[in-house]
Amino acid sequence: MTTAAPRGFGVPWPELNDGIFYKDVVPSSDHETTLIQFYSSKYGNSAPVQGWLQRIQNGQIKIDGRVVTDPNESVSAGLEVVYHRLPWKEPDAPYFLGILYEDDNMIALNKPSGLQVLPGGLFQQRTVLSQLQWQDSKQSTLLSSQEPQPVPVHRLGRGTSGILLCAKTKIAKSRLSIYFADGTSLVGGKRNTTKEPSSVRKISKIYRALVNGLVDEDEVIITEPIGVIKYPGVAKGLYVASPSGKPALSKVKVLERNVQGNCSLVQVEIQSGRPHQIRIHLSFIGHPLLGKHSPFVYYFHRYVFVSAIYVVLYIFRRILDMFIEDRTVMDCELFVEKK
User: Fold this and answer.
1) Which of 109, 127, 189, 208 is the most exposed place for a label (fewest CB within 10 A)?
2) What sequence ranges are listed for the domain RNA-binding S4 (predicted)?
3) Structural domains in the chain?
4) Could you report the per-residue pLDDT of 143-182, keeping only the tens digit for each?
5) Model confidence pTM above 0.85
6) Residue 78 near residue 8, CB atoms below 8 Å
7) Which of 5, 328, 29, 24 is nearest to 172 (CA)?
């Protein structure tokens, strides 16, 4: 008996990406400065003067669409200058995306661990967004080309696997974005944290994670705020548990305890969406995620044993019922609940 192939899509990654184009418009304060002065002063943290000289001489800079190789050429206020970072081979990443649910407004994908959702850092092409764009270009027609391309409406960390919702229409993107933000606003408003998620939110996010140590209590509610602190080598700062941070709420339920392995399998429902919330909150209670990482420096571990197992939808029946039949909502709820 043969097993049906999983429904989904994915294109193997090219050896090299397309590089990145960085655009600037010369401000009046830099009028009549030289090209090398403009880049070395504005982006000195990207490369030293010698590095920018080499880039200019390699023909990687354009002024108003014209390639310029003379570092001493003057730039005038209002001109567009573009630096082309040359293509490079991105780190390995999976590319196949399973389709869990799809209709005319949205698509629910099974994102694998190791695949980044949006471009950032070394991953500019090997992302969920790229695969969505490539798939849409294959299926596009003259009529459907007027619709925006499917886009993720929330994020899952690169090391996290699970359900990723993507909007296929403008109204779906708008509504889903509002619903994802709704939980964070409820936490900020200090609503009753004992309520069931369906009574206060239209979308609930529930994860499973493997953590260090044996969690004593069967259920833990963590309300520690999350904020940013300055940290050497991290330009935008480091997200940590901080009394001066923004409100955050995580509900932790122990599913299994492995005494021999000194670890616990937990289910985490987050009612806010702060960056690195699960990692930070679990470390805050003394049970960091299993993996090769420091419990303090949350940015630098590559793989995290976290899986988004539920994204429960209570949305389209009232808001989008003119676009979706009632049975679709029921199918979606039942489908997600089974996973």
Assistant:
1) 189
2) 34-94
3) 20-85 (3.10.290.10), 97-192+321-334 (3.30.2350.10), 203-309 (3.30.2350.10)
4) 555 667 899 998 888 888 889 999 999 999 998 888 887 7
5) no
6) no
7) 328
